[in-house]
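Before a colleague's protein record goes any further, I have to sign it off. Would you go through it and say whether the fold makes sense for this chain? Take the sequence as given and treat only the tokens as open to question. The record follows directly below this note.
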Amino acid sequence: MFTIYGSSMCPDCVACKKNFDFYGIKYDFIDINESMKNLKEFLRYRDQNPVFDSAREAGDIGLPALLKEDGSITLDWESIITEKGYFILEDEEPKEACGIGRKGC
């Protein structure tokens, strides 16, 4: 099972959850905006794991961040879907970006 760190305000997180739900992929969702504890937990990963380097450099938060059972982290939820032989469900409406540069989260 995956642990997904995300935000209900993040369009990429909403798309990730939509795909995981549709395909029955089990996960726990931790909304970093729900509590200071959740935010601090996420920031501990974000500040110490090099997988977030490119997100930080781009001014992105690095969401959604998926913690795998083996302890590794990925920001590429789409590859999890496609590796299982599924197709990425497209959004019905265009999503707004939430990054400083108006792209990504």
